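Thread: Modeling a multi-component assembly for a lab meeting

Hi all, long-time lurker, first post. My supervisor asked me to bring a structural picture of a complex we are working on to next week's group meeting, and I have zero experience with this. I have the sequence lines for every component (147 residues in total). Could someone generate the structure of the whole assembly? Inputs are pasted exactly as I received them:
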Amino acid sequence: MDWSEAFETGLSVIDAEHKHLIEFITLLGRADVGQRRRFTDKKLLEDLYTLTKIHFETEEDFMFKADFLLLDSHLGEHSTILGTLRTLIDAFAVDGDAQPVLDFMSRSIVDHIRGEDTALADFIRSKRQGKGKPDPATRGKGGVRKP
Ligand SMILES: [Fe+2]
Ligand SMILES: [Fe+2]
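Re: Modeling a multi-component assembly
Sure thing. I ran the full set together rather than chain by chain. Output:
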């Protein structure tokens, strides 16, 4: 999996983090079996977890500031991805197979960028352009801001 313009949301901070995340996943995916055994020693999968968590926090900051309508479902998706990533990294610590981690992250990050993150970026851009009304596709589906 390589970074592609198809992943761009149009928000430069978020796009830069997505690019970094995808490049890191791709780099890990290219490691051979011997290199993968050292993922634990070098804590590379923990770095992937941290990178993902930091990225989600960046987006959540955008969401809170913009009063994003789909806040709750987007937060839920981040939490689900991090939970699964944690489970798979813990399994790697036992069986030494990094492939499930890399497969899951490749798939879920791309799906998430094209889905929830694109909706978030569209919402923020439309707000910045002063349209006043968010995209109809993102309207009225919950998103109550947590205290
Ligand atoms: Fe997201
Ligand atoms: Fe994202």
